[in-house]
Specification:
By secondary structure, the protein is an all-beta fold. 0% of the residues lie in helices and 31% in strands.
């Protein structure tokens, strides 16, 4: 699955990490997310589920493995060559935000550190 591939090989261009410095568990995200706690998978499933970090390290789990992403992201990177990745404090793309420019890596969140609820791609 794209969401848990290494960032360098994933088609999804936003990578959110549990710890600062791109450490701990991560998840790759390809599309804007209105509410990280209520994502609808589509198809015949009518439910809504929280986005979670990928599970790594069976006998010695990485920090954040399997935890919700909402209010748990400390850093990120934007591998997109054109769009700005904006991570927001509130659901619905509202409140304080941290923006990562195209190609920006090693971004430590200042305004949404462990208080993130939505994400959106923008052109400026």
């Amino acid at each position: 699955m794209e969401v848990c591939k290494p960032a360098s090989t994933s088609k999804f261009k936003l990578h959110l990490y549990f710890n600062s410095g791109q450490n701990g568990s991560y998840r790759n995200i390809g599309y804007s997310v209105f509410d990280m706690d209520r994502v609808r998978p589509g198809g015949s499933d009518p439910g809504a589920y929280p986005l979670r970090y990928c599970m790594f390290g069976v006998s010695n789990p990485w920090p954040g493995s399997g935890q919700k992403i909402k209010n748990n992201a400390a850093s990120g990177e934007n591998d997109h060559h054109r769009y700005i990745a904006r991570v927001y404090f509130n659901s619905g793309y509202k409140g304080a935000q941290d923006a990562m420019g195209p190609g920006q890596s090693n971004a430590r969140f200042r305004h949404v550190y462990n208080n993130n609820a939505s994400f959106k791609w923008t052109s400026r």
